[in-house]
Fold this protein.
Amino acid sequence: MTTAPDRYAVIGNPIVQSKSPIIHGLFAAATGQQMEYTKVEGRIGEFAKQLDELRAGGMRGMNVTAPFKLEAFAYATHLSESAKLAGAVNALKFEGGEVHAQNFDGVGLVNDIERNQKTPMRGKRVLLLGAGGAVRGALLPFARSEPAVLVVANRTLAKAEELVSMLRTQSSVNVQACSYEDLSEPFDVIVNGTSASLFGEAPPIPTAVYSPSALVYEMAYGKGATPFLRQAKAAGATRLVDGVGMLVEQAALAFEWWRGVRPSTEQAIAQLAIPIDFS
Ligand code: ATR
């Protein structure tokens, strides 16, 4: 007798673009897990009701993407430290009446930088651009990597200052808030966590922040040669990457949390990577 596979899904709106089913399908095949992973289009304004229905239908866990990460936070009964710090949730696990919630984006990003990009951040100068949800989720994982200095720079300085004050209550890392125009020294790792690329723009940072050996990281995935990456290249940076590795690494953390098996991420990253064309 065969039993039905355990069910998982990603919920968002829109959702057609999501690569999560491909990634989790590769993980399941490689680790021999009997599971099904689908896409669900979230109904705006009915997130909790829809989740109740999905759970009643036997769903075991979900990934959550825009615009539902805050509603997932509110829906959870048990929030992890990562979810509390990010103020947002990207993975849920359902156990009876309990809804456990995590946010793996920040650790996924750090794993990609340190393992896949072979750039340990310990003792390095690290710059995070932006002060929205994406950067907030990355802060504590970055601090735990023990950089020499972690600078958070944002168009609206007050928002960067707020995040830095919050991090100082959690970590003793040397963290500073800065406006874009006040950046003047080169960094070893520069991460664009703003949404500027979605508007065809780049954060207006001085070219002095880039050095030829710096790792320059566009958090968004598959957006090609964004204005940020073009600006870095023009300034002489040579190590330019997008967020495909972050996407796959956060998925691997969710998969391990649900299934108790850590999948290898190499194959999925190779399959989903889109070469950045600067021509
Ligand atoms: P997300 O959840 O994707 O982080 P968000 O919370 O809306 O989205 O935050 C967007 C971030 O991108 C903010 O840091 C925003 O800067 P402000 O705080 O000054 O608004 C930044 N951002 C958006 N468009 C930008 C642009 N054109 N140039 C520079 N920064 C930009």
